[in-house]
Amino acid sequence: MLTMCTLLFGTSCKNDKKDTTTIDESTEMTDSQMVQEEVTEMKKVQVALESRSNSTAKGNVVFTEENGTVTMTAVVEGLKEGTHAIHIHEKADCSAADGTSAGGHWNPTNQPHGKWGSSDGYHKGDIGNMEADADGNATVTITTDEWCIGCGDSNKDVLGHAIIVHDGTDDFKTQPTGDAGGRISCGGIIQ
Ligand SMILES: [Cu+2]
Ligand SMILES: [Zn+2]
Q1: Smaller CB count within 10 Å for the chain: N or C?
Q2: Which residues lie across from 74 on neighbouring strands?
Q3: Is residue 2 predicted with pLDDT exceeding 80?
């Protein structure tokens, strides 16, 4: 019996391609492969955006972190055609019908509201705007080393906050909100 188990284990190890697997091959991972990825380098958290303020806006946001760089992609549907602000807000609490339970913009570094990367300052949650097409679909991607997923550094860690999509446009000037209008979709960033 012992010999049998050793043999099986040995065979399994020999076929294990762990050392040559790259992160980019992760599109169709099984659960066991997913565990292996987490043990190595890539972190991932997925957020469902729910409609708020009687809107039809909903969607999905995916954060991944690899080698200290976080990429966030938001895909939203059910929007009015045109420009919509999207931010990370302070609290992972979408319970209010108008989304106000998520608090203000996530701003751990005590900066003014602004355009991401601006020398005048910007909140860590100031993702910016996205454009909805005539069918109401919008997507935005941001890649940054100013965030992390679950690293525990309160100036960087996106976990425990919320994604908010707004009815209007972020003007990058009005303090502290960007005058982006109502909150039409919300999702807590929870692992
Ligand atoms: Cu906002
Ligand atoms: Zn802001």
Answers
A1: N
A2: 61, 140
A3: no
What is the token pair recorded at 59? 């969607």
Domain coordinates in residue numbering, the chain: 48-188
Give residue 87 CA to ligand 1 midpoint distance, Å: 4
More confident residue, 35 or 86: 86
Task: Considering only residues 27 and 121, tell me which one the structure prediction assigns the higher pLDDT.
Answer: 121
Strand, helix or coil at 13? helix
The size of the chain, in residues, is: 191
Tokens of 71: 């990429």
* Confidence (pTM): 0.79
Q: Which ligand is nearest to the CA of 118?
A: 2
Class of domain 48-188: mainly beta
The answer to whether 186 touches 164, Cβ cutoff 8 Å, is yes
